[in-house]
Design goal:
Largest sheet: none
Number of domains: 2
Shape: globular
Distance between the termini: 41 Å
CATH superfamily of the largest domain: Uncharacterised protein YqeY/AIM41, N-terminal domain
Structural class: mainly alpha
CATH class of the largest domain: Mainly Alpha
Radius of gyration: 18 Å
Helix content: over 70%
Strand content: under 5%
Number of helices: 7
CATH topology of the largest domain: Hypothetical Protein Yqey, Chain: A, domain1
């Protein structure tokens, strides 16, 4: 089952259970997805693939984390709680993120596959990581690990 179907199933379930906060967040996800689909039309894409949907979800989580920081500084705990609840709903659709030793092992494997020898080959390694681990990979966290592994 693709992410679009998962969103619809979760929306139906939250509506049946009367969970207004989850229903609202999933509707927000669907609205953002519609916007991403429309933005992709000039490229000849009617509906974006799951990889682009995962990237969209990661952007949504990142945006909410930034908002949480601002709300904490402003002493608005009510808004912090609302954003944190939205993050929890969004993250239900994201695969577990590669971190720590698993990320380092994936980087070592990608370096081996690409035959990368120096920091100049970082782009090849990042492309291989993205192709193999796509949705489970935060490229911002992977970059420094790749650079360190290549002696940068």
């Amino acid at each position: 089952m693709g992410l679009r179907e998962q969103f619809m199933e979760a929306l139906k379930a939250s509506m049946k259970s009367g969970d207004a906060a989850t229903t609202s967040t999933i509707r927000m996800i669907l609205a953002e997805l519609k916007k991403v689909d429309i933005e992709a039309r000039p490229r000849g894409v009617e509906k974006v693939e799951d990889a682009e949907i995962l990237a969209m979800l990661r952007r949504m989580v990142k945006s909410r984390r930034e908002s949480i920081e601002m709300y904490r500084q402003g002493g608005r705990q009510d808004l912090v709680d609302k954003e944190a609840a939205e993050i929890a709903v969004i993250e239900r659709f994201l695969p577990p993120e590669l971190e720590g030793e698993a990320l380092e092992a994936a980087v070592r494997a990608a370096i081996g596959e690409t035959g990368a020898a120096s920091v100049k080959d970082m782009g090849k390694v990042m492309a291989a990581l993205k192709a193999k681990h796509g949705g489970a990979l935060d490229m911002a966290k992977a970059g420094p690990v790749v650079k360190a592994a290549l002696g940068g």
